[in-house]
Amino acid sequence: PTVAVIGLGYIGLPTAAVLATHAADVIGVDVNASTIEAVNRGEVPFVEPDLSVSVAGAVSQGRLRAQRETPQAEVYVVAVPTPFQDDHTADLAYIDAAADAIAPQLRGDELVILESTSPPGATQHLADRLLAARPDLSLDGTGGRPLLHVAHCPERVLPGRVMVELVTNDRIVGGLTTEAARRAKDLYATFCQGEIVTTDAVTAEMAKLVENSYRDVNIAFANELSVICGKLGIDVWELIELANHHPRVDILQPGPGVGGHCIAVDPWFIVSSAPDEARLIRTAREVNDAKPGLVVDRVVAKAERLREPRIAALGLAFKPDIDDLRESPARAIVSRLASALPSAKIAAVEPNIESLPGDLAELPNVTLEPLEEAVREADIVVLLVDHTQFKAADRRRLRLREKVVIDTRGVWR
Ligand code: SAJ
């Protein structure tokens, strides 16, 4: 089939590449001209292991191309952002824009799959918008009108392992109708080796949110333990290692907070759908969101004793070995340190980027430096991301013993 993938971001582009490699002629659609040009050159505008090979191959074989306009296609995969707004609800504007672009192209019998992480009801919302523009179509054939098949198939791939997990993870496919779910299942079966489980759309939407909330709640438990241990003078990493010897205990790792566009966001979609009921989920978010502030307080307490403190902040990404700075606690910590300590010089180290993002570049006391330079000059070293480079670093050569070290990830214990 011809598949149009709307949105060539962290999820859309890998999905487009995998579909193009396995089963389909794929047209990627994006609003960003530089993304379109990069893809058409066979290049990937962000870091994700093995993705470039896949995109380059699909483009050179003529199975994948990118353009701005939404084309006619048999299948539409919508993988646009659903940004999180100040009131903790999702902004569905990009879904609406995708629907408005798809609607005029429909001839009947198309399958439209929403992959974007969505609050409960978003798939129905997408269908309603398509049908409002195209009252000549229907979901169930009433009045003899041609069918439109709409399903939700949340992506659940882990950044950094996207190309592996796209193929090996189980998939949940939720259809607004049974037929829509069946057709979506057939499409994913062309490349997905995991089990593909069908359900209704709202259960599929909720499943995705619940998976990420489960992880958020468990990370919050680890983060709360780290704060308790800080107070009691206990090494939290040793404690967790010991507790995890129990056959039914598997505590996650504390850190400087929870980042990324998913785990730090999705639980709020549940909270905003059921504010009075989602008490634990809300508290977990609050515990994790409080963590960056606690790290800032610890660094400030050390730095205040120095006249012109030099701080090396190791890592800006939201997790190890990726270049993704979205919702990153490390980035927020650096930014907050820069304003809390105007006389400090902060050398940020992020091996996966070439220049500081706009908000940090604007700060006069923050620079991007290689690891050795940053640490050599530093009074205080705060480790924020467990990048391989930092874990592998020769601690003696970095003379860490001579510095104040605040290791939020427990890699240099
Ligand atoms: N983190 C900790 N301690 C841990 C594990 C993670 O502090 O023990 C932090 C990380 O440093 C990071 C954040 O949590 O800041 C999230 O990282 P992650 O690796 O747990 O997850 P993401 O955001 O990269 O991807 C998650 C995954 N969801 C689950 O594992 C349930 C992925 O499968 C989803 O596809 C993705 O969200 C998504 O797109 O929803």
Automatic annotation (TrEMBL):
Its EC number is 1.1.1.336. SUPFAM superfamilies: 6-phosphogluconate dehydrogenase C-terminal domain-like (SSF48179), NAD(P)-binding Rossmann-fold domains (SSF51735), UDP-glucose/GDP-mannose dehydrogenase C-terminal domain (SSF52413). Keywords: NAD, Oxidoreductase. Residues 312-413 form the UDP-glucose/GDP-mannose dehydrogenase C-terminal domain. One of its GO terms (biological process) is polysaccharide biosynthetic process. GO terms for molecular function: NAD binding; oxidoreductase activity, acting on the CH-CH group of donors, NAD or NADP as acceptor; UDP-N-acetyl-D-mannosamine dehydrogenase activity. Belongs to the UDP-glucose/GDP-mannose dehydrogenase family. This is UDP-N-acetyl-D-mannosamine dehydrogenase. It comes from Cellulomonas triticagri.
